[in-house]
Amino acid sequence: AQSVTQLDSQVPVFEEAPVELRCNYSSSVSVYLFWYVQYPNQGLQLLLKYLSGSTLVKGINGFEAEFNKSQTSFHLRKPSVHISDTAEYFCAVTITGGGNKLTFGTGTQLKVEL
Amino acid sequence: DAGVIQSPRHEVTEMGQEVTLRCKPISGHNSLFWYRQTMMRGLELLIYFNNNVPIDDSGMPEDRFSAKMPNASFSTLKIQPSEPRDSAVYFCASSPTGQGGTTNEKLFFGSGTQLSVL
To answer: Could you tell me if A73 lies within 8 Å of chain B, comparing CB atoms?
Structure first.
């Protein structure tokens, strides 16, 4: 079965600084990878996804992620964060042909400070 | 579109009572998912349906949990009897992906039901 590890439970960062949220996955077969964001008291929203093709994926709100097959990673980055980016971020994986059955990581709380 | 609609938004009940959570997926979406979120275990997939048929219920924790999807526009998750350890946020999500995951479109999540079992 596939799994996802998010190494950091909390990441504090100052506004306008760059940020990287780490995600590593484990699977014996090909995967699709996703990043979702959860704002307080809301459901999750898709930030970006990697299905195939270019390993650098750009998403909404200026976020991007790079799929690295050799390191089994899919880290999320943003060059300059804003206070409104404060939220919980979830990495998720599904196997190809998995019918959208996602396995989520435990989440990383991003706290942007002034 | 109003998005995925869940009700109630909050539910407080006593141990032993029956709890029913409701979900209306986005019209036209043929996959529906129930997730549970807790601090300890994060987001767990409980069950998912495709074209109203349960495809995978391996995440349902116990026989106390049951889910139904009588039609394409409605699903319920029932806990009977409820226990304090069932306290969590329960999310419903839907997607337009067909069985087999040929397109892997994104999931659209509802705002969740915060369940507290005393």
So the answer is: no
A74-83: string of b/e by CB count within 10 Å (b at 16+)?
bbbebeebee
Q: Along the 114 residues of chain A, how does pLDDT read in single tens digits?
A: 788 999 899 999 999 999 999 999 998 888 899 999 999 888 899 999 998 888 999 999 999 999 999 999 999 999 999 999 999 999 999 887 666 678 899 999 999 999
pLDDT tens for residues B31-54? 999 999 998 888 899 999 989 999
Q: What CA–CA distance (Å, rounded) separates A65 from A74?
A: 6
Residue type, B99: Q
Distance from A71 to chain B by nearest Cα, in Å?
Answer: 23
For B15, the token pair is: 């141990």
Residues paired with residue A108 on neighbouring β-strands, in sequence order: A89
CA distance B4 to A102: 18
Q: Which of A88, A100, A109 to mutate to test the interface with B (most CBs of B within 10 A)?
A: A100
